[in-house]
Design a protein that fits this description.
Length: 388
C-alpha cells in the first residue's frame, strides 16, 4: 500500500525540503521528493506545512503506560512500547535496571520472541543498565543487585542472548576493563554508568571499548577535591575523549536547559543523543511507580527520601520541545539527536534514523508548536496519533 505525505517541511540528511513529500510503500520509504506532486495510487496525507521527520529512537527507557520492562512479560513489553509509540518513539531498546540473572533471562527471552515473531516490531534489542555499577552512585538502582563484573555470569548471558545490544558498567570496578573488552568483541555497546571514574579510569574504559556515557551528568562525578587538591571527574574525562558519545535525559529536569545547550555545543549533534530514561509511569495516568521506593514529584521520578532522581516521566515528543523551546537547540539538530545520532550509536543507521529511500518507514509529523500530529511505525499510522 502506498501512502504519500505531501505539503510537508521534510527533514533529510541533506537538510530541509520545503513543500516536499515522503512516499511510503508498505513498511519502507519508497522516495523522498522535493515536490508534492501526487503519486498515482497513493493514499494522500496533507501535512499542511507541518514538519515531517524520522521517528524517534529510544536507547534508554525502562517502561511506560504503567508497565516496566523488568517484569519480563510479553504483555508488559507490549503495553510499554505502545505507550511510547504514541509519543513518537518508533524504535526502542527496552532497558532493565540492575537485575538478577533470572530477570535478565526472562526479559531476554521475551525480547527475542517478539523480535523473531514480528518483523515490524519497534523493539531492536535489550539494554542492561547494570548491575555492574559503583554502589556509591547507585541512585535509583536496586542496591541488593549491584556487584562487580563477573565473567562467569556475563559471558554465558552474552553468548546465549544476542538480543542484548548494550550493557552499562562503572569502568573503575575490578574486572570492568575485561568486561568491556568481552562484550564489545561480541558487538555489544559498552557504556559508562553510575560511576566515580576519574580520568585514568575513563581512559582505561575507552581503551577497553566503553565508547558511550549513560545519562550524562547524572550518577557521575564532576571535578572534586580530596583534601587540598582537585581531581577531574567523570564528566570532564568524558569531554576530553572527543569521540565518546553521550546521552542526555532531555526533560529539562535531569539536566537543566542551559547544560543541555552546553553539552550540545561541546559534544555536537554527532556525539549527543536524547533519551527519556522513562519509568513505567510515563505515558500513563498512574502516579504509582513500579519500584515502591520511587515517588513522582515536580514532573520527575525521585527516591522517596529525595536523595536522588530515579528516572523520568518524559516521552519523545517532550524531549524535542524541551531541547528546542528551553535549550534553544535548532529544530533540525534536536530531531537528529532523537533519530540519526542514536541510530548511529546503536549501529542501525542502515535502516533507521533518517528519511531516505529504502529505509524503514518510521515517520513523525509535528505542528508549529512541536506537538505530534502523526506517527507512522513501519509505514502504519499509529492509532490515536492522527491530528491532520
Amino acid at each position: 500500500m502506498l501512502t504519500q505525505i505531501v505539503n510537508a517541511k521534510v527533514l533529510t540528511p541533506q537538510g530541509w525540503i520545503e513543500n516536499g513529500s515522503v512516499l511510503m510503500d508498505g513498511n519502507k520509504i519508497a522516495d523522498v521528493m522535493n515536490n508534492s506532486q501526487p503519486v498515482e495510487g497513493a493514499e494522500i496525507v496533507d501535512a499542511k506545512g507541518n514538519v515531517v521527520a524520522p521517528g524517534g529512537i529510544e536507547i534508554h527507557v525502562h517502561g511506560g503506560g504503567g508497565r516496566d520492562f523488568m517484569e519480563g512479560t510479553e504483555e508488559a513489553f507490549k503495553v510499554a512500547v505502545d505507550a511510547h509509540l504514541k509519543h513518537g518513539t518508533t524504535a526502542i531498546f527496552p532497558t532493565l535496571s540492575s537485575s538478577t540473572v533470572p530477570m535478565i533471562e526472562a526479559a531476554a527471552e521475551t525480547c527475542t520472541k517478539i523480535m523473531n515473531e514480528d518483523p515490524n516490531t519497534p523493539i531492536l534489542g535489550l539494554h542492561l543498565e547494570g548491575h555492574y555499577l559503583n554502589m556509591a552512585m547507585a541512585g535509583g538502582q536496586l542496591p541488593e543487585n549491584i556487584k562487580n563484573p563477573d565473567p562467569a555470569e556475563y559471558e554465558p548471558i552474552i553468548n546465549k542472548w544476542p538480543c542484548i545490544k548494550r550493557w552499562d558498567a562503572a569502568p573503575e570496578l575490578p574486572g570492568a576493563v575485561e568486561f568491556g573488552k568481552f562484550i564489545t568483541s561480541k558487538g555489544v555497546l559498552a557504556s559508562i554508568a553510575h560511576t566515580q571514574a576519574e580520568y585514568k579510569d575513563v581512559k582505561a574504559g575507552w581503551e577497553a571499548g566503553f565508547t558511550h556515557a549513560t545519562h550524562f551528568y547524572n550518577a557521575m562525578t564532576g571535578v572534586h577535591k580530596r583534601r587540598e587538591f582537585k581531581y577531574e571527574g567523570t564528566i570532564e574525562s568524558i569531554y576530553l575523549h572527543d569521540d565518546m558519545t553521550v546521552e542526555l535525559v532531555a526533560d529539562g529536569i535531569h539536566v537543566p536547559p542551559a547544560m543541555l545547550k552546553m553539552v550540545y555545543k561541546i559534544k555536537g549533534v554527532e556525539r549527543t543523543c536524547a533519551i527519556t530514561d522513562a519509568l513505567a509511569v510515563a505515558a500513563s495516568d498512574s502516579q504509582t511507580a513500579f519500584d515502591p521506593r520511587v515517588i513522582i514529584e515536580d514532573g520527575v521520578c525521585k527516591l522517596s527520601d529525595r536523595s536522588a532522581l530515579a528516572g523520568s516521566i518524559a516521552t519523545m515528543d517532550r524531549l524535542i520541545r524541551t531541547m528546542v523551546q528551553q535549550a534553544e537547540i535548532p529544530l533540525n539538530d534536536a530531531l537528529r539527536m532523537i533519530s540519526e545520532t542514536p541510530a548511529k550509536i546503536m549501529k542501525v543507521y542502515d535502516r533507521k534514523g533518517s528519511l531516505e529511500k529504502g529505509k524503514d518507514a518510521d515517520v513523525i509529523m509535528l505542528d508549529e508548536n512541536l506537538e505530534l500530529c502523526g506517527v507512522w511505525s513501519m509505514g502504519k499510522l499509529v492509532d490515536g496519533t492522527r491530528k491532520f
